[in-house]
């Protein structure tokens, strides 16, 4: 492995889940732990790069001096932080699991138990990756992730194009040891004209492979 230095480079990394509040005690969230994105942030930092890490609720401690952590809760908060930071970065890596929808109304008070069934109305969240992709400059790169459960390659390739990514990292919820929470993952790198499949490995190792791949783009 080449010890490619990232001194002088600034990376934006999104990681972790988002929490979409329903009322003061409840939220809609997902199973992301933040491990994958934090592993990437640590790898960039180890190679001398600076990282703006926009991190949803996660219990993992991040403490490399090259990493500035921007703690956020919701997709809208993550969107605001990421869109304001990307201009000063050469690379954006979108490893967060962002809620596509949020409750339309957030109750000021705890929602009381009453009827046998209640209906929640949801409204669409901004797509952070897509909006960064739309304003990406020719001197910037944008890397996405795709968490799929079916038609893996086809769906990932669609996202690569739609969100204007230079590379997308596909992982499947159906693969043993892959995806949310585990220390390991099984990924495929999909670029405009080449695809690389990897075996099960530690997220810290995947972070090295990914940074090497980005340097070679
Ligand atoms: O955190 P871990 O527990 O380690 O788990 C890692 C992971 C499974 C969360 C990670 O490897 C991963 O796959 N992250 C992306 C999950 C996802 O929500 O993918 P998606 O296919 O729904 O979204 C596609 C891309 O658009 C992603 O880069 C996502 O960050 C981005 N996106 C999606 C929706 C949205 N509103 N804004 C976004 O930026």
Automatic annotation (TrEMBL):
Region: Phosphopantothenate--cysteine ligase, residue numbers: 11-217
Catalytic reactions of this protein: (R)-4'-phosphopantothenate + L-cysteine + CTP = N-[(R)-4-phosphopantothenoyl]-L-cysteine + CMP + diphosphate + H(+); N-[(R)-4-phosphopantothenoyl]-L-cysteine + H(+) = (R)-4'-phosphopantetheine + CO2
Binding positions for CTP per the UniProt entry: 100, 110, 145, 159, 163
Co-factor(s): Mg(2+); FMN
Keywords from the named record: Decarboxylase, Flavoprotein, FMN, Ligase, Lyase, Magnesium, Metal-binding, Multifunctional enzyme
Transmembrane segment boundaries: none
Documented EC number(s): 4.1.1.36, 6.3.2.5
Biological process, per Gene Ontology: coenzyme A biosynthetic process; pantothenate catabolic process
UniProt keyword Secreted present: no
Pathway this chain belongs to: Cofactor biosynthesis; coenzyme A biosynthesis; CoA from (R)-pantothenate: step 2/5; Cofactor biosynthesis; coenzyme A biosynthesis; CoA from (R)-pantothenate: step 3/5
All copies of domain DNA/pantothenate metabolism flavoprotein C-terminal, residue ranges: 6-216
Gene Ontology MF: a single term: phosphopantothenoylcysteine decarboxylase activity
Family recorded in the similarity comment: In the C-terminal section; belongs to the PPC synthetase family. In the N-terminal section; belongs to the HFCD (homo-oligomeric flavin containing Cys decarboxylase) superfamily.
Purpose: Catalyzes two sequential steps in the biosynthesis of coenzyme A. In the first step cysteine is conjugated to 4'-phosphopantothenate to form 4-phosphopantothenoylcysteine. In the second step the latter compound is decarboxylated to form 4'-phosphopantotheine. Catalyzes two steps in the biosynthesis of coenzyme A. In the first step cysteine is conjugated to 4'-phosphopantothenate to form 4-phosphopantothenoylcysteine, in the latter compound is decarboxylated to form 4'-phosphopantotheine.
Official protein name in the record: Coenzyme A biosynthesis bifunctional protein CoaBC
Protein's gene: coaBC
